[in-house]
């Protein structure tokens, strides 16, 4: 009896099929996770330095302070700092569920669930020097392998611009609501307008635009001073037919509290920025409940 011929294995096809199966499994995990979350909000900006993370953190804290179940995902893989603004020690590591082969987000203030690359690196000085595919893999794991559970809101703080992470999140969560953060100066508004246009091209629901560092109240004479020429955010909202969710004034205390890990909406509830932010949150809730 002749030996039966054993066909050669096509290694490339085998690897390709394994990758596809893994990707399909990850996509299913993301869909299952996101189905348990009522509202997904993606906070983006066209330019860095406009206070996008400050808005994300205080939006999450505002929603959690009224008893809602909130998760906060830091999608800035190479520059994570959500944990710093929340006062969470980055030495904390996610707990692993060995049976499910998944992990739990870190417990944050007001019973929030927080996940960030900051919890996976050695210390705050350690750089994450990754190319696009590695960053995309981390984003998919944060969405699909983290045990977020049932939430009322998941706030996703994205890096500035229209880079890989932003495109990936917008594609992976098709029913998210997009919030654009800008400052009043023309350079920031130019980039913000591009970001709005990108979201609309991708047929994503743009919830509105927030103008941060909108102006300054003089502590001596109480006169309100525009730090930049006003009206840019209003014009962008009108041009793109989206709501202007509100304006947050410039206050040094807001920056100081962020550096100290004290979100200003729960530590200075009476200041002008906190009041403006609460009005923004009310408007967001009203728009989502329509």
Walk me through what this model shows.
The protein is built from 10 helices and 12 strands. A hairpin with a 5-residue loop joins strand 5 and strand 6. It is about 40% helix and about 20% strand. By secondary structure, the protein is of the alpha/beta class. The strands form 3 sheets. It has an 8-stranded mixed β-sheet, sandwiched between helices. The chain is globular and about 60 Å long. The chain has a single domain, classed as 3-Layer(aba) Sandwich (Rossmann fold), CATH 3.40.50.300. The longest helix has 25 residues.
**Global shape:** globular
Q: Tell me, rounded to a whole number, the average pLDDT.
A: 84
Spatial strand order of the main sheet: 5-6-2-7-1-8-9-12
Strand content: 15-25%
Assign the structural class, choosing from mainly alpha, mainly beta, alpha/beta, alpha+beta, or little secondary structure.
Answer: alpha/beta
How many DSSP-defined strands? 12
Number of domains: 1
């Amino acid at each position: 009896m002749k030996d039966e011929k054993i066909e050669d294995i096509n290694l490339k096809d085998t690897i390709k099929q394994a990758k596809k199966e893994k990707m399909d499994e990850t996509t299913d995990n993301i869909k299952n996770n996101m189905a348990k979350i009522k509202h997904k909000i993606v906070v983006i900006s066209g330019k860095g330095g406009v206070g996008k993370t400050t808005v994300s953190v205080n939006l999450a804290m505002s929603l959690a302070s009224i008893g809602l179940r909130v998760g906060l995902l830091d999608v800035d893989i190479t520059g994570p700092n959500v944990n710093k603004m929340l006062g969470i020690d980055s030495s904390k590591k996610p707990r692993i569920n060995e049976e499910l082969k998944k992990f739990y987000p870190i417990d944050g203030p007001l019973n929030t669930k927080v996940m960030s690359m900051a919890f996976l690196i050695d210390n705050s000085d350690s750089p994450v020097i990754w190319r696009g595919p590695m960053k995309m893999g981390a984003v998919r794991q944060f969405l699909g392998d983290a045990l977020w559970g049932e939430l009322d809101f998941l706030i996703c703080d994205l890096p500035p611009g229209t880079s890989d992470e932003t495109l990936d999140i917008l594609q992976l969560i098709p029913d998210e609501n997009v919030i654009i953060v800008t400052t009043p100066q023309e350079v920031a508004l130019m980039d913000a307008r591009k970001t709005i246009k990108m979201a609309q091209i991708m047929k994503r629901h743009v919830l509105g635009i927030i103008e941060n560092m909108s102006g300054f109240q003089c502590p001596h004479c109480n006169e309100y001073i525009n730090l930049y020429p006003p009206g840019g955010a209003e014009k962008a909202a009108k041009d793109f037919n989206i709501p202007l969710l509100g304006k947050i004034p410039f206050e040094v205390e807001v920056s100081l509290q962020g550096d100290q890990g004290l979100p200003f909406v729960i530590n200075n509830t009476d200041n002008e920025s906190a009041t403006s932010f609460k009005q923004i949150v009310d408007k967001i809730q009203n728009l989502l409940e329509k």
